[in-house]
Specification:
Layout (H helix, E strand, L loop, with lengths): L3 E2 L5 E2 L1 H18 L1 H17 L1 H14 L1 H23 L3 H10 L16 E4 L6 E5 L1 H9 L4 H18 L9 H22 L13 H14 L3 H11 L9 H7 L3 H9 L1
Antiparallel strand pairs: 1-2, 3-4
Helix pairs in contact: 1-2, 3-4, 8-9, 9-10
């Protein structure tokens, strides 16, 4: 093993020589602006050219080196704390307390995500409202933090799912249900056939009664008849024909403001 003689005639090991060289470079980097700028440019050039190789090497080391992984996690936690303080004036301890208050789950969907929760805050006042998962946080953003829009969306979905439930106040026999279902399927098929026809397309010669009824209904819908439009869509969706509960169902998913306006007339 080669050794280098240091001060006082003592031989130095390669590790000592390397440490002394690194110390000289660190000192020069701290004291020499031109040297520092040159080194930064060289590092940037190297990283730009070898980015994929560097990333792959770091991933392999993260997967196989427990000490390196622990150091990366600690650095990420430190960066997260700095981000919290910078963006929200919130310490990591406050974040942990809020998380504990929510049982570690999103304040809206109550699900526990694998990663950290988002800090939801009011864009007008800057005040923190709670911790949300990415999906719920994005949903509020798409609704522009408007509770009326969010409620309208909830009412809209609820009205749809309510319409899927079979009515419980009418008792029909199995035969009646079978006949009604068959007639509904036939009507739906006839309407779908008519919708596939281009406007002004020549009559294809269909003469059965159900097809002619479907044609008249589709023609009325194409002319802008709202009731006909609704019946066509209800038939396609497998719903029954229009009934007395339509107004109640339609009002259930209207926004609260629209319901209040309708109530004044």
């Amino acid at each position: 093993m080669e050794k280098e003689q240091g001060g006082g005639g003592r031989d130095r090991s390669p590790e000592e020589v390397r440490a002394a060289s690194n110390e000289r470079r660190r000192k020069r980097y701290a004291e020499d602006p031109e040297y520092r700028e040159r080194q930064l440019k060289n590092q940037l050039r190297y990283h730009t050219v070898h980015q994929a190789e560097i990333t792959a090497r770091r991933r392999r080391r993260y997967a196989t080196d427990p000490e390196y992984r622990a150091r990366c996690l600690a650095e990420n936690a430190k960066a997260r704390r700095a981000s919290l303080l910078t963006r929200y004036g919130m310490s990591l301890l406050e974040y942990q307390l809020r998380l504990a208050l929510q049982n570690g789950a999103c304040a809206i969907c109550k699900k526990k995500p694998n990663g950290p929760l988002c800090i939801d805050h009011c864009h007008l006042t800057g005040k923190v409202r709670g911790l949300l998962c990415h999906k719920c946080n994005s949903a509020l953003g798409f609704y522009e933090d408007d509770p009326e829009l969010a409620q309208a969306g909830a009412d809209y979905l609820r009205a749809f799912y309510d319409s899927l439930e079979p009515p419980g106040d009418v008792m029909t026999s199995t035969n009646e249900q079978t006949e009604a279902g068959k007639a509904g399927r036939l009507m739906r098929r006839a309407i779908l056939l008519e919708l596939q026809c281009e406007p002004g397309e020549a009559d294809d010669g269909a003469t059965d009664k159900l097809r002619l009824i479907a044609r008249r209904l589709v023609d009325k819908a194409a002319e802008g008849d709202i009731q006909a439009i609704k019946e066509v869509l209800d038939r396609i969706d497998g719903k029954s024909g229009p009934g007395p509960d339509d107004a109640r169902t339609r009002a259930r998913w209207q926004p609260a403001a629209a319901r209040s306006r309708a109530a004044t007339f």
